[in-house]
Amino acid sequence: MTNITKEEVNNKLKGIIEGIKLIPTLLKRFNEDLEKAFKDEDNDFIKSVNKNELDYNEVSDNNYLKLLEIVYSITKEETLNPENIKKKVVVDVHNIASDEESMYYNFETKKEFAETYRTEETVRVTMAMFKKSAELEKELNKDLYDFNVMELERFFKSLNATTIRSIQTYISRVERYTEYAMSKNLKEGDINFASIFDKSNRVQGFLDKEALDNLVFPKDEIMEMAIRADNAQDGVIIALLFDGVSLKNNYEELINLKINKFDEENRTITTENGRVIPLSKETTILVKHASDQADRYVSTTGESHRSYKVAQGENVLRGLRGRDTVSVGVIGQRIYRTTENYGYHYMNATNISYNGRIHLVKKLMKEGKSIDEAVEMTLDRFNIPKNKSSVFYLKRKVTEM
Which helix (H) or strand (E) holds 231? Predict the structure, then answer.
């Protein structure tokens, strides 16, 4: 095995991890071993391994070999036996380090700065950030520490971050790097533009919207938020979308739900086109409260509270001031108001529905359904066409978790 290249090891490793993810017992052991071996690393590292999105050329020697040991202990795949390839891997890593200098802008300066961090892993992720900034630096012909506000915005958006925490980490590193450059008299001018993003509301604009739509939250968190909403008319929207009411045609199905089609005893609601949607206990409670013709709607702005009479009518969702239906805009506002109160600034209707689908597939699988059966039943529940694309997408999302 001594003649195997690191690229071949990497490809083999990715393929085997994909296989592990398809076998529940192996996946459980794999995750347990990861947690033990990398308990001192941040969660993003373990998530990247789980999603098989890690660039192994950016992983430290020590972590790379630990990962090989885990996979080898599970599969006994000799290609990944650390004892057979350890020396070769280390040699390859050092060769890569020298070859990679051209992939950075001002490599030596960035390397010197990265080495001011104490841990090997922080050095690695800092250099990984600089590799991402190189393309824009070369385009603008200036170092990251000399970027102005608009140029920094371009860079932060290019990172496709999915959490406020991760983008704040990037901002902090750039801010510290700029301070370092100023202390070495490398930077033109004495303004650290990265510092203006520390507490700026611009941060949320740097997040990857597609990735945010795919963020997964526990069902309990989503339902607790719905149940504790200031108004049943707000919370019921979140609960119904989670349970399977369709998003199609600008929430047409949701907007037209009728009170007389709600079966509290059997916990179902029937849509205008005859789809029968099973409801959770929480959603059943919210539909009952939202259907109350004496319901009032509380609007909170700062410290002031105003109460309005919810319009009477046959729909579950009703407006205020005599409006017996709601618009698409009102649905968006009600979701935003509720999620904002709980700090989920990035949660939206798409994300809520996506979480409902993931939860239902996993629930059906626990009940004994195969993943193919569970995915098809879930797509039916959420009124999503069953085609190769929708089946593959949902199946992939469940198996990579």
Answer: none
Task: Kindly report the number of other CB atoms within 10 A of residue 296's CB atom.
Answer: 12
Give the E-state strand segments of 302-345 in sequence order.
304-309
CATH classification (class only), 219-352? mainly alpha
* pLDDT < 50: residue spans in the chain: 1-2, 87-97, 200
- pLDDT tens digits for range 46-58: 777 877 766 776 6
- Does this model's pTM top 0.70? My answer is no
Q: Do the beta carbons of residue 137 and residue 178 sit within 8 Å?
A: no
Q: Which residues pair with 276 in a beta bridge?
A: 270
The pLDDT of residue 343: 65
Reduced to 3 states, what is the DSSP secondary structure of residue 127? helix
Determine the pLDDT at residue 215. Answer: 66
H/E element, 119? none
Rounded to whole angstroms, how far apart are CA atoms 33 and 71?
Answer: 9
Token pair belonging to 66:
């630990």
CA distance 399 to 401: 6
| pLDDT computed for residue 198 by the predictor | 61
What are the boundaries of each domain within the chain? 6-100, 104-207, 219-352
Which amino acid makes up residue 241? L
Pair of tokens at residue 192: 């650290």
